Structures are given as C-alpha cells and as structure tokens.
Amino acid sequence: MGNEVKPYTKQGNKKGQVSTMFNRIAPYYDFLNRFLSLGIDTIWRKKAIDLLQSEQPKLILDVATGTADVALETVKRLQPDKVIGIDISTEMLEIGKKKIKKRGLETVIELQEGDSENLPFADNTFDAITVAFGVRNFENLEKGLTEMRRVLKDNGKLVVLEFSKPSIFPIKQMFNLYFKYILPTIGRLTSKDPRAYSYLYESVQAFPDGDDFVNILSKTGYKSNQCKPLTLGICSIYSGQK
Q1: Can you give the residue range of the structural domain that contains 85?
Q2: What does the H/E/C string look like for the chain?
Q3: Which of 91, 203, 219, 230 registers the highest number of CB atoms within 10 A of its CB?
Q4: What is the tens place of the pLDDT at every residue in 213-242?
C-alpha cells in the first residue's frame, strides 16, 4: 500500500490536511494544472472519460471533483442525465459551481461536499464513477474503493485517472527532477503554499501504481480491471467493473 504521506505534518488526520491544502490553493489550482502540465492534463481527462463511451452511463458520480473539470467534460462528451460531484474542499467546490453556472449546467451537474470513504448515497445508485487525481489523497484507499463499489450498480464501471511513476530512461529521471524540484518551486511561488506541490511529488512516490493498484482493485471486489499508461507512464487510467 505504500507509506502514508500527509501534506503538512505526520501527526493528525490526513483527510483534514488534504482539505486544508486544497482550500488554500483553490484560487490557483486550474491555472497551475494547465501551466505545470503544459495542458496535457486536459487530454488525459478526455481519454479517461472516453472509456465510458460504450457504457452510455446516465447517472455518474465524480469523486474528488475539485473544480468540476471532469464533471464538465463528462457532460460534454457523454451527455448523461446527471453528474454528481463530491469533494472535501469547499473552496474548490465553490469555484466549480461558478464554472457550472457560467455554462448553464446547474440542472445537469450537482456539486456537494462529501467524503469518498463515507458516500451519502444508497447502494447500487450510479451507472459509473470517475476519479481524477484523487485516489492518492484518500486516507484509506481500500475503504474508499470499497465504498465507491457499494454505490455502483451491478456491472457499473469505475474509471480512475492518476499519476504514476515512469520507469523508462530518461523519462524517469526527467520526471523526478521536474516533480521533485521544479514543480514545487513554481507552485510555492504561485500558490503561496510551500507544501502543496512538494506533497504532490511525495504522494505520487508513495502511491501503489500500475499492477499494484490493479491488484487493490481486485482485492476490493472489482473485476475486468485494467491499467492503461499515458504519456510514457507519467499518468495512468485504471478501470474496473462491479
């Protein structure tokens, strides 16, 4: 499972620290995502959402929805009846709500504060669940995956987009240099949070990616589990079914 990494201190609740971190960087989050990834993150999200094309889901849950980028792109690409996005950061949600209102999608996308490990929904509710760059931040990864499986309908699909650790030379070395030194420096100067982007690198290093995560999906009850590396292994799309 890897060592637990927290944004600020080893003591205390990870969930609370993650919420505090994202509340602090919320005003800068979208800009930094585009800038620091050179816009590639938008392509990754589209590829993840497109894995649901054949499923034609009508009711979708977007966990760790943040500022609603995935929810908005999901509506654009899949035309579901409803997307519900949950997140533990109220400041991120407020920004997301403004983006949704600007596009006139308030009746299609609903955002609410919520915890991935204690979802406020009945069993067998959703046709599909998406999580983009969120599972690294779960306090209890297996509990979160189990809870998401609970609210999925039978044969419903989970799609997870997450950073992974490239292994190919020299991509591995360039990735580590950028994520460990360059990105935290830019993030620190721009977001005014000295820890947020150092935590990003540390949490990626600690996360059980690739086959390890696929095995955890199997352990928590998912089937037909797959991993699709993107951009030479910098990011991966994982999928599984209930």
Answers
A1: 14-241
A2: CCCCCCCCCCCCCHHHHHHHHHHHHHHHHHHHHHHHCCCHHHHHHHHHHHCCCCCCCCEEEEECCCCCHHHHHHHHHHCCCEEEEEECCHHHHHHHHHHHHHCCCCCCEEEEECECCECCCCCCCEEEEEEECCHHHCCCHHHHHHHHHHHEEEEEEEEEEEECCCCCCCHHHHHHHHHHHHHHHHHHHHHCCCCHHHHHHHHHHHCCCCHHHHHHHHHCCCEEEEEEEEHHHCEEEEEEEC
A3: 203
A4: 999 999 999 999 999 999 999 999 999 999
